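so the lab meeting is tmrw and i was supposed to have these ready like two days ago... anyway. pasting both below. for each one the top line is the aa sequence and the line under it is the structure tokens. i havent really looked at them closely yet so no promises
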Amino acid sequence: MTQQELTAYIQANFDGKLTLLDTGRAEPMFEVKPEDLVDTARHLRDDPQLKFDFLCNLGGVDTRQRLEVVYSIASMTKHLRLDFKLALGYENPSAETITSVWPAANWYEREMNELYGIEIRNHPDLRPLLLPDDWDQGHPMLKNWDAPDFIRMPEL
């Protein structure tokens, strides 16, 4: 299946739950609504034409207007890849866990919680992963984060 065929297939079979974005250069990039995240992820994994069985990466983005969680997935048997993202408001961001779909999301979601302050609803274990257990200085990957010993480099 080519990237164009993959894009057409998703647009025809996902009831508009994945919106195609023009930012995907290497692989198609879609946006999913928060309320459709888990069902869409499960559909991407279980669809016999797609079989997206591997979560390659899950990362956060602070655009200063909103937070985004970007999911990169692959199908090992179908040799397909795509990315989709979830856009969240800057205040009280939260997303449902996808560990029931791809267990590898566990640690990535813990990172999102620690570093961006994104609440991951129904996550099985949100213990700190990267920061000390007694960390109380906020979420260091936010662009507005500041701390007394943090020296911000000038923007170029």
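ok protien two:
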Amino acid sequence: MTAPIAKFDPQLDLVLEREIDVPVELVWKAWTTPEHIRHWFVPKPWTITSCEIDLRPGGIFASTMRSPDGQEFANVGCYLEIVPLRRMVFTDTLLPGWRPSSKPFFTAVLELEPKGAGTRYVATAIHGEEASRKTHEEMGFQDGWGTVVSQMVEYIQAGHVKL
């Protein structure tokens, strides 16, 4: 049983919902294996140059994104909740070991549900203030996170993720 997530607040939150044609077990593995994340986690031609995962509450979730012109952007946070094959919650508000971040931006909730042979995929970005939500929206949340889901599905369907 999972704890309920806060009620969606359109002033603070963004959500992406999709039904995708890959099994939940492969989606989970794509999300929890650093070697897989490197291949789909940012819209191309951006790349992931490093990824670290310690899949437990308080464990690190970090990645470094590289822009097409070579600039790198490190993202470090920690997991708050892990429910295998169903939900993961991670944030940059807290760092690994529950240390507060000096620059919190958002908390992400990924919820997965088997849907036939596929998966109902819901990704919610929760922000602490309306300005952060607006910034995230203007950064291209819907297009960016949607592209990433499509890339992940293509990567899985190409046979790169195995159980």
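from a quick look at the 2nd one: The radius of gyration is 15 Å. The chain has a mean pLDDT of 95. will dig more after coffe
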